[in-house]
UniProtKB/TrEMBL annotation:
The chain crosses the membrane at residues 28-49, 61-82, 88-108, 115-132, 144-162, 238-260, 266-284. One of its GO terms (cellular component) is membrane. It comes from the Bacteria. Pfam families: EamA. The keyword Membrane applies. The keyword Ion transport does not apply. It comes from Streptomyces griseochromogenes. Belongs to the EamA transporter family. Signal peptide: none annotated. Keywords: Membrane, Transmembrane, Transmembrane helix. InterPro entries: EamA_dom, EmrE-like. This is Drug/metabolite transporter (DMT)-like permease.
Length: 285
């Protein structure tokens, strides 16, 4: 079940990143993040009320609050790094986020077998290559590297915290709701500060109605991915769940190929193949 939930996480995160990337071409990234998370928070609030999730409130919710703070910081840093570029450096470097939950798993006493260790190495290499790393060109700004590392640390922190936020499905709904409320609050404050500095909150021609379903999809896919990752980590080794869940850049690249007819570079195709091999090794190990 760990492999199934973790791979589902990769699929959902990859599609959410693809949708978010399309939206940010016309709408400010902060607006996309806040609006999509707000929609997800409303849906989760309804689910929590329907399932009686309020009864699961307890100290563990602080882990969800922490994840809610780390998430927007990671996303904002990631988008800023992408804006500074080059994407061929930022995207692969951001996959270092997997080091945080894997490190937590090792500290907690998990010891992957030889086959799983090989799978981790192959899968991570595949993910980095699938991002299309820039192997030559102009030097990368130090600020870009720093922002990317902050994003990776933030994403990895969300990975680690969300697994500790609940012990059952009902509590998971509540923890995801608390995480989203915190994300909206943090993101909303950042958006307000940005607007005060003169940055636009919406495109010049306004937000088209067609963007609302897309925002809803991005927000709900992201929250569902957090949920499936928590289930993956609860059903098996965190080291395996984290690596399999980190395959989402491959999904994003394939979605761009399928929907936008973007051609994969040879190094990206090779990376996708290695990621698949690593997945098989982890699943069978």
């Amino acid at each position: 079940m760990t492999a199934f939930f973790a791979l589902t996480t990769s699929l959902l995160w990859g599609l959410a990143d693809f949708g978010g990337g399309l939206l940010t071409r016309r709408t400010p990234a902060l607006t996309v993040v806040v609006a999509s998370q707000a929609i997800a928070a409303v849906v989760l609030g309804v689910i929590v009320m329907a399932t009686g999730g309020w009864g699961e409130a307890g100290p563990r919710l602080w882990f969800a609050v922490g994840a809610g703070v780390a998430g927007p910081v990671a996303v904002f840093s990631f988008y800023k790094a992408l804006a500074l570029g080059p994407m061929g450096v930022v995207s692969p470097l951001a996959t270092l986020s997997v080091a945080v939950p894997v490190g937590v798993g090792l500290v907690l006493g998990e010891r992957p077998g030889a086959l799983q260790l090989a799978g981790i190495a192959v899968a991570v290499t595949g993910v980095v290559l699938a991002g299309g790393p820039q192997l030559r060109g102009a030097p990368v700004q130090r600020q870009t590297i720093l922002l990317t590392l902050v994003a990776a640390l933030g994403f990895g922190t969300v990975f680690a915290l969300i697994t500790e936020a609940s012990t059952n499905v009902t509590g998971l709904f509540l923890s995801l709701f608390a995480q989203r409320l915190t994300s909206v609050a943090v993101g909303g404050a950042a958006l307000y500060a940005s607007v005060r500095r003169g940055a636009p909150a919406l495109p010049e021609d306004g937000l088209p109605r067609a963007a609302l379903p897309a925002l809803g999809f991005v927000g709900l896919a992201d929250v569902a991915a957090n949920g499936t990752y928590a289930l993956a980590a609860q059903h098996g080794p965190i080291t395996v769940a984290a690596v399999l869940a980190s395959l989402y850049p491959v999904v994003t690249a394939l979605a761009a190929r399928g929907f936008l007819s973007e051609r994969l570079r040879a190094i990206q195709a090779a990376g996708a193949g290695l990621a698949l091999v690593g997945t098989l090794l982890l699943a069978t190990g």
